[in-house]
Amino acid sequence: MGLRQLHLLQDLLQQMFFQMCPHLLCFLLLLCVPDTHSAKCPEQCVCDQIQLTVTCNSKNLTHIPPTLDEITVKLDLRGNDIQELPSGAFKHTPYLTHLSLQRCNVRRVKEGAFRGLGRLVFLNLANNNIDILYQESFDGLSSLKQLLIDRNRVEEIQPGAFSQLGFLNLLSLTHNQLVYIPNMAFQGLQNIKWLRLSHNSLNYLDTEALAGLFTLTRLSLDHNELQFFPTETMTRLPGVTRLDLSYNPMTYLGEEVVSMKKLTHLFMDHMSLQDLDPTAFSKSSKLVHLDLGHNQLRVLQPFSEGTSSLARLNLAGNPLSCNCYLRPLREWSIRNKVKLLGTCGGPAHLSGESLEAVYPPELRCQSQEAMLRAEREEAARITPPPTQEPKNKVKCPANCACEADTHHSSCENRAHTKVPQGFSPGTRLLDLRGNHFHFIASSSFPGMTQVVSLHLQRCKIVEVEDGAFSGMKGLIYLYLSENDLSSLSPGAFKGLPQLTYLHLEKNRFTGFPRGAFSLVPSLLALHLENNSISRLEPDVLLGAGSLRSLYLTGNAIGNVSPRALEGAEDLDTLHLGGNKLKEVPTEAFSKMGSLRELRLSGNTIRWVGPNAFRPLERSLKELYLDNMGLEKMSQSSLAGVGPGLRSLFLEGNLLEEVPDLHPLSSLEVINLAHNPLMCDCPLLPLRMWIEKVNLKVRATCANPPELIGRRVKDVQVFRACPGGESLPPPPTVTPKPAKAPKATKPKPMHLKGPRRVKMLKAKRRKQGSNTKPTTAKKTTKRQTMELI
Ligand SMILES: *[C@@H]1O[C@H](CO)[C@@H](O)[C@H](O)[C@H]1NC(C)=O
Ligand SMILES: *[C@@H]1O[C@H](CO)[C@@H](O)[C@H](O)[C@H]1NC(C)=O
After folding, report:
1. How many of the other CB atoms lie within 10 Å of CB of 757?
2. Does 243 map to a domain?
3. Where is the protein found, in the record's own terms (predicted)?
4. Phi and psi at residue 13, in whole multiples of 5°?
5. CATH number at residue 327
């Protein structure tokens, strides 16, 4: 009898049983009949029926065992040979909380592989061969707290890869091959506490690379290739208290570079620091523990004010000269009770002495002559003999530097006029920025099939010939920013099957370089910021079917054809800020059913009409309409997008009223700051909405005059409006500020018509006859700010 028949028979028996005795007693009896389902256990595995765990450790399994019990809670599949995790791979075990998949030779996690695992809290994918994290690889893991992807080969994170992991606390991506992190790569991690990116090849962090991680407290970036402290990126991480940057090749820290308000522990040991500015840490006032051990510091100035919390400064392993130049630091450490760890590297009589044991009077300088002699001797001692060969020899053109270990080759700022030839074919990162190539001839990179990232910024390039990059089969990141390109030939990017991120910002394009992108099948993100593109004509994106992000901020676009975006229907991010648009280009969005983020900031859009974003109603999550001189929004301007929208930015406009925000039921962020809001009955819906939501709204009154600068939430006028009676009364024992306006005038309760018009006129007069929105905006902004 087959298994199927057995099940049928069982079902039949159960049915009969029910028909024969429908009483409670019988039902209880039925519960006691052993359930054959719970005995399911794949042959190669060990199952614990009580703990509900299944262990199939190192069994050469090539698939997820199909006969797992549905109620399994922990599944351990370590050490198997499961090369690919297909979509829905675990759909038969929806109760899993722990899943271990280490050492399984996994190469690919298909989109939706974990769909259905809504209870999973722990997922370990370490020691596999995963190279790309796809947009939907982790969809469905809505309860996941820890995700470990260490020791894989991840070199690409697609935008949105983690967007569904709203409960994740720990994401670990150590020992991978990340060279670069795209903007907003970690978007959606709303509860992340610790992000581990140690042991990668990161050499640069974009300003927005870690954007949106408001809850992050701990960040590990040690063992990477960062040459500079990524100030802008770090400043956008408001909650980080511990930052580990050990083992990065930084040589210098400039003025106020570390500006992190909550930072308490900073690890910058084992870098190549030779010097640092006394103010380097002065914008991190909470810093308690600073590790600068094992750098190349010979002398160090006392830190300037601002680091008053500092208690421990580790300087161990630096070649510190304990002479008169170090005395100010020692005095400062005594005065501020900063414990210094480390020893003197010289002069001879203090060498090896603990810094704490040396007192300021002992820190003296010899005569100049003696000092020079000592310096010469020391220089002779530390300069390696010129005949010594580097340990790992690697092919490298003249006037370039190549490293075998990291597969990085660089000829940055060397005034090359032709692309140098003769790099090792194993090169993965090729940095040629800051040269004078003027043009890139066809086939300029023969045999460079392994290059992942190619830097050609600031090379005065005016032309890229057809097939310039052909043969670069592995190229993913191409940087052509800050050149002089004004057009692109359609064949410019021929032969780049994997090109994913293309940077063309700060060139001289006056029109959209159409046609060139149809040969780049994998293009996901296209950067064209800060060019002079004046219009988007029909079909400029035809052929760029996989494009997800298009960045056009800082151009001169005044006109977007209704068919401009056709062909790029999967676009999810569109930045059009800082252009010359006069209206929302609604028609162009008609087929953009996937657009999640739209930025229109800084255009001169005075009015947003009804249904302006209606075509995006299913997808739009973030909308930027700030600093536009916006005077009015139609009541139905946001119609449709309500249930989905998560962020709405309206700051720095000229709005006196806003449309009813009640339909925006998913809103998490809103900014209404710096608008001349008129605190009167027409604004009641906003006031009622503020009462209802638990959001920081940043709305202040700019009118009537007696309410200037007060928060909309705090003023009482709305209680007198029809429908506003339910608002909470003022707290009874509020201590009034001494200069509160006297209540001699009747309160501007339900004022309409004449009074209001008069007030508006008064305001306009105040702003002068100049109606340019920028001027007006500035005035309002200043007025409001002064009064906050
Ligand atoms: C797995 O395969 C390896 C190599 O083929 C073999 O040596 C080993 O015994 C196998 N293990 C099991 C549990 O079958
Ligand atoms: C564009 O230019 C502005 C102003 O100079 C600058 O702040 C911004 O970073 C630039 N953006 C890019 C992507 O180059």
Report:
1. 10
2. no
3. Secreted, Extracellular space, Extracellular matrix
4. -60, -45
5. 3.80.10.10
What is the pLDDT at residue 524? Answer: 83
Residues 6+ apart with CB under 8 A from 734: none
**Which pair of tokens denotes residue 302?**
């006392």
Instruction: Dump strand ranges (E) for 617-763.
Output: 622-624, 632-633, 647-649, 669-671, 677-678, 701-703
- d(CA 505, ligand 2 centre) in Å: 9
Domain limits for position 341 = 250-364
User: Which protein residues touch ligand 1 with a CB less than 6 Å away?
Assistant: 59-60
Beta bridge mates, 575: 551, 599
For residue 624, give the nearest of 663, 642, 660, 597 by alpha carbon: 597
Q: How does pLDDT run across 519-551, given as a tens digit for each residue?
A: 888 888 899 999 999 999 999 998 888 898 899
- What pLDDT is stored for residue 381 in this prediction? 55
Q: How many domains does one find in the chain?
A: 2
Q: Closest-lying ligand to the alpha carbon of 43?
A: 1
Same-domain check for residues 169 and 262: no
Buried/exposed 133-143: b ≥16 CB within 10 Å, e otherwise: bbbbbbbbbeb
pLDDT for 192 equals 96
**Confidence at residue 8, expressed as pLDDT on a 0 to 100 scale:** 40
- Rounded CA-CA distance 184/600 in Å is 18
Give the chain's residues under pLDDT 70.
Answer: 1-39, 366-392, 405-406, 731-788
Record the tokens describing residue 567, joined without a space: 């062909």
Contacts with 116 (C-beta within 8 Å, 6 or more apart), sequence order? 88, 90, 91, 94, 140
Q: Domain end: 335, 364, 393, which one?
A: 364
Which residue minimizes the CA distance to atom 8 of ligand 1? 60
Measure 616 CA to ligand 2 centroid, in angstroms: 28
Q: Is 142 part of any domain?
A: yes
- Of 304, 331, 364, the residue at which a domain comes to its end is 364
Is 0.85 surpassed by the pTM of this model? Answer: no
Is-contact 320 300, C-beta < 8 A?
yes
Question: Is the residue at 116 inside a domain?
Answer: yes
CA–centroid distance, 763 to ligand 1, in Å, is 83
Residue 107: count other Cβ atoms within 10 Å of its Cβ: 16
Determine the number of helices (DSSP H) and then strands (DSSP E) in the chain: 8, 43
Predicted pLDDT of residue 760: 35
- Residue 277 within a domain: yes
Statement to judge: residues 45 and 172 lie in one domain: yes
Q: What is the pLDDT of residue 265?
A: 96
Contact in structure between 566 and 590 (CB atoms under 8 Å): no
d(CA 674, CA 49): 62
CA of 670 to the centre of ligand 1 (A): 58
| Short-list 473, 418, 468, CA closest to 447 | 473
